Amino acid sequence: MKIVAGEYKYRKIEIPEGIRPTTEKVREAVFSMINFSVPGAKVLDLFAGSGSLGLEALSRGADICWFNEGDRANFRVLKRNSENCKAGDRAVLYNHDFRKCLSLLTEKPDIVFLDPPYRSGFYEEAFRLLEENDLVKEGMIVVAEHLYDNKLSDSYGRLVKIKEKKYGTIGVDLFEAR
């Protein structure tokens, strides 16, 4: 797997064993939907895994990305991927449970990638905790990747679904804060 576009284009991304990375096709589709929001953005990749979504955002001009990966072995791979891309201090890495990560953030992101393990049931809790930790701001975008058959709600607090796409068995929903 590799970065699709931008500064880190063609850089290889190591995939931790046992995780399901966002495919290049889906990543390309996601970034075509949010492309104008990425340059200069503050990004949160909450369930980072390999870091492919956040690194793609940095490659396309995001100012900073906060990466969170709760699994220690996956976190080591994420760290190597960040170093391989030479992301430097634009990549801030956390190795916490997502709940703790959300409680530690002091800045509101412009874009949030929400891609937990599909059957984890973490979607609703993550949306709720974004609100409870005062991280939602007007215009913020949340990109939620899920199994298409496991539909997400049309809204979570101030976050309203504005787009829903299907890529095989995968669903990608875009939410915007109002």
Explain what you see:
This protein is an alpha/beta fold and 178 residues long. It contains 5 helices and 8 strands. Strands 3-2-1-4-5-8-7-6 form an 8-stranded mixed beta sheet.
- Give the helix proportion (percent range): 25-40%
For the record, give the distance between the C-alpha atoms at the N and C termini, rounded to a whole number.
35 Å
Give the number of domains. Answer: 1
CATH topology annotation: Rossmann fold
CATH H level, superfamily name = Vaccinia Virus protein VP39
Q: What's the gyration radius in Å?
A: 15 Å
Q: Would you report the number of β strands?
A: 8
Which regions contain 5 or more consecutive residues with pLDDT less than 50?
none
Q: What would you say the CATH architecture is?
A: 3-Layer(aba) Sandwich
Give me a quick take on this structure.
With 178 residues, this protein is of the alpha/beta class.
Task: Provide the descriptors you would attach to this structure in a database record.
single chain, alpha/beta, 16S rRNA (guanine(966)-N(2))-methyltransferase activity
Q: Could you give the topology of this structure?
A:
Layout: H1 24-34, E1 42-45, H2 52-59, E2 64-68, H3 72-84, E3 91-94, H4 98-104, E4 111-114, H5 122-132, E5 141-147, E6 155-156, E7 159-167, E8 170-177
Parallel strand pairs: 1-2, 1-4, 2-3, 4-5
Antiparallel strand pairs: 5-8, 6-7, 7-8
